[in-house]
Design brief:
With 367 residues, this protein is of the alpha+beta class. The protein contains nine helices and 14 strands.
């Protein structure tokens, strides 16, 4: 994967280079005077020369030189920062990004649908019950090669081939080629292709394709969310007895992690939630929230950035919020590592948080 520095990193590199060059020039400029002073015994070798290089003409010339250097340096720094900012903005044509992402999602989804019909799966364990197939790798290759060809200066994070790349301010694609791999292996029709784009560590574009139903979800920041080009919106449930809530148990079987998941569900059941569903796909669950098919989705053991970037844009553009499940902080800007979130309309997310981590006098969460 080709990674490039951010605009700040580029500016910092240029500043360092300019500074070192100017320091070298200043040193060369005053070296003859220094050697002369040392020969005449005015200063010892290794002693600071600046206090001994006095005299009105010399002092004025040095002061003018330093002022000129600082002016040139500051102009260069401002020019560098402006140029880098412009370069990053020019790189991110969200219209083109959306067009390419939709095309690649459909291509990868076609591979998944064909593999299910033909039964041509090769399954490998990544550890415990975390599985990967040849189709995961094939689909990621399709998506990443297509993105790299279209956007060679962008960064890439993928579940199978680049999970350790650090999310920076540079345009970064986060791809899950098959979200819901276990479902895919068992032919349970809840799996999808997820392609998300972050700029400045903020999700700005999401495309998710559900090959089992032939449904393509997409959203771009500030432009709304769509399924099959039809606008979608979160539901308006305001209490648990109106809400169907989706969650999942991840791959961890650590007793504390499992018990926390059980306790979170039990809190909702005590609050008289209308229903709890587990579909085994974070990305599909977020699409179902955005579409209003379920009221909320929460989970605290999500694999990585590739699972949440696209869905975050789709949910928020559909009128929802995406927060940390235990303290209601927004999940943006995103960070590397395991992900934790609760999403839905603002009111139901607050009600779920209150029941799972706070105290409520109303069993159904109504106000």
């Amino acid at each position: 994967m080709k990674n490039v520095g951010t605009n700040r990193e580029r500016a910092r590199q240029l500043r360092t280079l300019l500074w070192s060059r100017e320091e070298a020039r200043e040193s060369e400029r005053y070296e003859p005077a220094k050697k002369s002073a040392q020969r005449n015994g005015d200063v010892k070798t290794g002693q600071d020369i600046t206090s001994h290089l006095s005299g009105p003409n010399f002092a004025c010339r040095r002061q003018d030189s330093l002022r000129s250097y600082k002016y040139r340096r500051d102009c260069a720094f401002r020019s560098c920062s402006a140029s880098c900012d412009s370069a990053v903005k020019m790189e991110v044509d969200l219209g083109k990004c959306l067009e390419v992402a939709k095309r690649l999602a459909l291509q990868a989804g076609k591979v998944q649908a064909g593999a299910r019909r033909e039964g041509s799966l090769s399954i490998v364990s990544k550890g415990g019950i975390d599985l990967v197939t040849n189709i995961d790798k094939q689909c990621e290759k399709i998506v990443f090669e297509g993105l790299q060809e279209a956007f060679p200066e962008h960064n890439f994070i993928g579940e199978e081939s680049a999970p350790d790349v650090v999310l920076s301010d540079a345009p970064t694609w986060c791809v899950d080629p098959v979200d819901g791999t276990t479902n895919f292996i068992h032919n349970f029709p809840m799996f999808c292709v997820s392609i998300g784009l972050c700029v400045g560590r903020e999700p700005v574009l999401g495309v998710i394709f559900d090959p089992s139903r032939g449904e393509l979800y997409h959203a771009v920041k500030g432009r709304g969310a769509f399924c099959q080009n039809n606008p979608i919106h979160v539901d308006n449930a305001s209490s648990l007895n109106e809400a169907v809530v989706c969650t999942n148990f991840g791959h961890s079987r650590d007793p504390q992690v499992v018990q926390a998941g059980v306790d979170a569900m039990q809190a909702l059941l005590k609050g008289n939630v209308r229903g709890i569903r587990m579909t085994g796909s974070c990305c599909m669950a977020m699409c179902h929230v955005a579409r209003g098919l379920v009221s909320s989705y929460y989970e605290s053991d999500i694999g990585g950035l590739w699972d949440v970037v696209a869905g975050t844009v789709i949910v928020t553009e559909a009128g929802g919020v995406v927060c940390h499940p235990d303290d209601d902080r927004p999940t943006i800007p995103l960070k590397k590592g395991k992900q934790r979130l609760c999403c839905g309309n603002q009111q139901i997310v607050e009600v779920i948080h209150q029941h799972q981590y706070g105290h409520s006098d109303n069993s159904d969460g109504s106000k």
